[in-house]
Amino acid sequence: MIYRPETEADKNHTPDSNLIELTTNMLKVNRLEEIDTCYSSARLGKMAFIQCMEKIEKVKYFLEETSSEQDSRSGKNEAKEKVWSHVGLNEKTPVTSKRTSALTEDVPAPSAPFDHRIVTVKQAEVNSFYTVSRKEILGAGRFGQVHKCEEKVTGLKLAAKIIKTRGPKDKEEVKHEISIMNQLDHVNLIQLYDAFESKNDMILVMEYVDGGELFDRIIDENYNLTELDAILFIKQICEGIRHMHQMYILHLDLKPENILCVNRDAKQIKIIDFGLARRYKQREKLRVNFGTPEFLAPEVVNYDFVSFPTDMWSVGVITYMLLSGLSPFLGDNDAETLSNILACRWDLEDEEFRDVSEEAQEFISKLLIKEKSWRISASEALKHPWLSDSKLHSRLSAQVTTSC
């Protein structure tokens, strides 16, 4: 099964080389000097790799409509987008509600060990309130490092995200992340507990989970990641994203590295890293020029307007990876990756998809669509048979039992 752009014009379209070069350069300009590990192949689950972390300048462009010509050209798509953006916004589901499913491990992720709180930044030393284990590094990236820490008064185990700030602009960006997290109260979204500001850094104290990145499970040859597992993970991702979209917030950096497992054994996850998240305002058209190349939606590569469907494209890429261990658009370099994305060039013909259900393949096909207004929303994704059909889940469970 091969999926191509939906129109004849798209089929014959060759991505503009200048646009790809410009986007590639914008991503390379901000590359970190510090190198961690980076994908060297599409077959992520089978090959060693070196991941080059992107230092992404977090910028927000609220652009006004500049001409009637632009309006007439984009009017139809904007109309579709407005309809799309309201899908499911009134379908708020209490996070404590029980799910009805044939999936035996379909249990909501545990709530944070503290009530949701509105955090204000303290002008104080973090060491006065917390014992931060500088030697225990939980993660690292463009922002700095995350360490285990413990609140001195209560003994509560938490995680301290230490962000190096070079000036007022960097601090304002971190304060923006804090204001975003203050709005998000959901079991599948990591919760903020406290925040501190000093001369050269800012520290976010957050809920602690110890299951590692979802990415680690994708590439672990010793971990048997089944389609049922993928259903459980994607269902929770969609529930977390639905809550964000109900709050009119876009994540804009969804990838397996930004999804943590609650523990090593359970199939429960929490979405992290809201440093690039943006509030969505219908009258203020938002463009962004950041992200990880292989997870970028076409509208980001084209420097076009982004909205809720931009996150759903990333959900489609993550679903593809969970089911196959492959990255659908990854090329030999950033330019080739961006070209594949703009051409919407992907397929399900690899051997890894041989035993994947038709429902799963259709689910992917409803997300990896170039025209963003045609992608299904998080609410619609949760109603899709792949995530909601108990008979399908029972059949897949029986297949797993038989294979064992």
Automatic annotation (TrEMBL):
Protein name (database record): Myosin light chain kinase family member 4
Which terms under GO biological process does the entry name?
Answer: intracellular signal transduction; positive regulation of apoptotic process
Single GO cellular component term:
nucleus
Task: Output one GO MF annotation.
Answer: protein serine/threonine kinase activity
Alphabetical list of PANTHER family matching this protein: MYOSIN LIGHT CHAIN KINASE, SMOOTH MUSCLE (PTHR24342:SF20), SERINE/THREONINE-PROTEIN KINASE 17 (PTHR24342)
Which domain of life does the UniProt lineage start with? Eukaryota
Q: Which family does it belong to?
A: Belongs to the protein kinase superfamily. CAMK Ser/Thr protein kinase family.
Q: Does the keyword ATP-binding apply?
A: yes
**Native source species:** Orycteropus afer afer
Per the database entry, which stretches of residues form a coiled coil? none
